[in-house]
Amino acid sequence: MQARLAHTMIRVRDLDRSLDFYSGFLGLQEVRRSNIGDEATLVFLADAARSYFIELTHNHDGRDYELGSQFGHLAFHVNDLAPVIAEVEKRGWWYRQSKPSSRSKYIFVHDPDGYDIEILAAAN
Q1: H/E element holding 119?
Q2: CA 39 to chain CA centroid, nearest Å
């Protein structure tokens, strides 16, 4: 069997804040939204090539979540890291940058629910 990655689902506390992060900041496009009765809203986001999807699940009952220790991070490529860093700093968000001696250039930033998001400069 040859498996193909379909999507990653994460539960979010505030759907609007999460959409601002994933769509407004990272530029992902909403491709589908559905409601599971009054229980939850599911929003699927994709990159421009629609090669990968993230499902944001917002449960309507107000429950809180703890980040699981088994989860690492989500990673995204960008052509130029400098404007991303400028935007992160403008928004006043915490971030951690790769060391100058590192082969790859990246930052880690937290999404509104505290998930680690790695943003990598695309290799030239």
Answers
A1: strand 116-121
A2: 23
d(CA 19, CA 55): 11
Q: Is 47 helix (H, G, I), strand (E, B) or coil?
A: coil
Q: How many residues does the chain have?
A: 124
Within this chain, domains 1-61 and 73-124 share the same CATH topology: yes
CATH (residue range 73-124): 3.10.180.10
Residue 62 pLDDT: 84
Residues annotated as part of the active site: 118
CATH superfamily of 1-61: 2,3-Dihydroxybiphenyl 1,2-Dioxygenase, domain 1 (3.10.180.10)
Question: For residues 26 and 115, what is the distance between their CA atoms, to the nearest angstrom?
Answer: 14
pLDDT over 60 (residue 118): yes
For the segment 76-95, what is each residue's pLDDT rounded down to a tens digit? 989 899 999 999 999 999 99
Contact 71, 111 (CB under 8 A): no
pLDDT at 65: 80
